[in-house]
Amino acid sequence: MSRIGKMPVKIPEKVKVELDGSDITVTGPKGTLSRSLHPVMKIQIEGDLLTVQRPSDSRFHKSLHGLTRQLVNNMVTGVSNGFAKTLEIVGVGYRAELVGRHLKVIVGYSHPMLMKAPEGITFVLSDPTHIKVSGIDKELVGVVAAKIRSFRPPEPYKGKGIRYEGEYVRRKAGKTAA
User: Fold this and answer.
1) Which CA distances in Å does 57 have to 22, 44, 52, 136?
2) Cα-flanking dihedrals φ and ψ of residue 134, to 5°?
3) pLDDT band at 177 (very low <50, low <70, confident <90, very high)
4) For the chain, N or C: smaller number of CB within 10 Å?
5) Is CATH 3.90.930.12 correct for 83-164?
């Protein structure tokens, strides 16, 4: 039995879960998320607990069991609490600023990098070198944060670039004098 798949998902009192065949809609104080799950997985709601059951012990069904449970759990967590990732910008002259719903990142290129906030994503800048990407969809928050990081990933010699908060950048020794 999948350790993650067999754990029930606790549904908070402010969150409403609706099932329509293999489609699930989760509504909470922060918004609404919908997703189509694999039709072989059985989802049952008993009171404030949601459980996911698989039809057999085949390798394919085992792989879907934990995935389906975690997708539903992320939806419930997202509409009740939300998700956030923080990025740090390291480097002389590297900075970010908000221009309307666009994030303008200056990281050493001849032009600033612009990124429009997708629907459901908000950017918050505590200072010009810290970007907080937040939203209710965990997958979308991760994709947007990875896209911003890809503008200038941290390099190993001086550590300059955009990194996740708390990310360790392995440093290399530079050239040695002869």
Assistant:
1) 20, 19, 14, 33
2) -135, 155
3) confident
4) C
5) yes
